Amino acid sequence: MLHRPSLLAELEKKHAAIVAFERRVEREAGAYVARLDRLTHADARRLRDAMMHGVTVGAVPSSEFDRSERMIRPFQCSWTKHDAARAWAMEILRDRVTFAADGSQVLPGRDISLPIACVQIAVFENPHAAHIPYRKALRLELVTPDELLAADGDKMTPEIAITLKRFEIEVEEIEKFIRSREGWQARGERMPLAFFDGTLLTSFTRPRTTVRERYAASIARLMDSSEAMRVPVIGFIDQSYARDLTAMLDFLEGINHRTDNPVCDAQVLRARRDDVDDDNAHRLAAWGDRTTFCYGVRDEMHEAFRDAENRARIGFTYLQTTSDGTPARLDIPAWVLDAGLMDETVDTVRAECVVGNGYPYPIEAADAAAVLSVQDRAQFLRTVSDFAANAEFDFQISRKALSKTHRR
Questions:
Q1: What secondary structure letter does DSSP report for 323?
Q2: Domain map of the chain by residue range?
Q3: pLDDT score, position 328
Q4: Rounded CA gap, 390 and 398, in Å?
């Protein structure tokens, strides 16, 4: 149990340091806003040229920037009542199939004599049609001892192994959905859309490892399926700490990439400048506003994330999904922009956020179905133990773990 008086005492003791950090972030975010305001067509061309030559620039404004020379694309609708917003959302979603997969995991750690774990993935598919019910399903898989203890140059731990397994299954389920929608355009259906809870623009470090290659291979297959079936997949990050736009602005200023930079993109996009009218500032001011689509070009970007012309295959936009607070980040395949589906894609995300009160409802529904509680962990241990008693393997639970299962 958390000791609240001790926490309050610590907050009081560290108050000055917390406030000083907050003010530093505000100052630096304001400076980035000023630099973002000065972004020009010439800068965008310079960034695209650098991207084509494989240079790490953080972010590269797409053709959307060329049409307005602004980083913000205001949402054209506004409502005074939530009922009106829901009516708009229902029209956007009507007869449109949306999907999400999310997972949870049980890793007992050192409480058991045999390393074994499980991953549970939930999928939620909603056709938004009057006479067709939504589909919710669960998929549970054991992670065996050889998978948990796999060696990868000392880079693979049981925690990494089970997280990787969960990631691969989530991506596999999204791929299944995408391929199930093949031919939607020929059938005259509305554009389907899939959600992934997390980033698609995964950063990698050297040296190459099995973990790195498996992550990259999963994302590459997902991008291939998405493009082939013309079904957008959205990597949704509710609280993003990415620094792609700030890296872009540093590159244009000739500043080396700062790994200790305290300012993230989302903070810049909501920062205020006292010397600039909000109508002209490059900031997300209202619900539904979004940034120009940018290609993501990060350090150590895997070659699978670039196309034949060396252009990034994945980009992003920041979307204001609440009236206050920082924006959500949407990772989006670059083909969506090329196909002219960007506005429809983002409108669909907006609509699901209206239904989910600021968060996409399909991800919320999948998460609620997939989550494994402390009680579920205890049941997992008991079930495996009971099974082991009648099978040909030994499985023992530590006294500490048994005590926890009785107390919680």
A1: S
A2: 4-106+121-129+191-372
A3: 95
A4: 19
**110: its two tokens:** 């050192």
pLDDT tens-digit readout, 82-140: 899 999 999 999 999 999 999 999 886 666 667 788 999 999 999 999 899 999 999 99
pLDDT tens for each residue of 205-255: 656 788 888 899 999 999 999 999 999 999 999 989 999 999 999 999 988
pLDDT band of residue 384 (cuts 50, 70, 90) is: confident
Q: Which two tokens stand for residue 355?
A: 């239904």
What does the pLDDT read at residue 280?
45
First to last CA, the chain: 12
Helices (DSSP H) in 144-257: which residue ranges?
A: 145-148, 158-180, 210-229, 244-252
DSSP 373: -
Rounded to 5 degrees, what angle do the CA atoms 285, 286, 291 make? 70
| Model pLDDT for residues 164-179, shown as the tens digit of each residue | 999 999 999 999 999 9
State the alpha helices, DSSP H only, in 290-373: 334-338, 342-355, 361-370
Q: Find, among 288, 191, 199, the residue nearest to 235 by Cα.
A: 199
Only one residue has tokens 């399903």, namely 137
CB 343 within 8 A of CB 319: no
Query: What are all long-range contacts of 305-310, with beta carbons under 8 Å and residues at least 24 apart?
Result: 305/201, 305/216, 305/219, 305/220, 305/223, 307/334, 309/52, 310/51, 310/52, 310/53, 310/54
Q: Are strands 314-319 and 294-297 parallel, antiparallel or unpaired?
A: antiparallel
With vertex at residue 307, the alpha carbon angle to CA 342 and CA 328, rounded to the nearest 5 degrees, is 40
Q: Sign of torsion, CA 143 141 371 217?
A: positive
> What is the residue type of 194?
A
Smallest CA-to-CA distance from 166 within 209, 196, 192 is with 196
* Selection from 126, 288, 290 nearest residue 194 by Cα: 126
CB crowding 374-402: b at 16 or more within 10 Å, else e: eeebbebbeebeeebeeeeeebebeeebb
Strand ranges for 146-212 from DSSP E: 193-197
Closest residue by Cα to residue 305 from 363, 365, 362, 235: 235
Q: Tell me which DSSP letter residue 82 carries.
A: H
Q: b or e along 149-160 (b: 16 or more beta carbons within 10 Å of the residue's beta carbon)?
A: ebebeeebebee
* Cα 64 to Cα 45: distance, rounded to the nearest angstrom: 13
Strand partners, 195: 100, 234
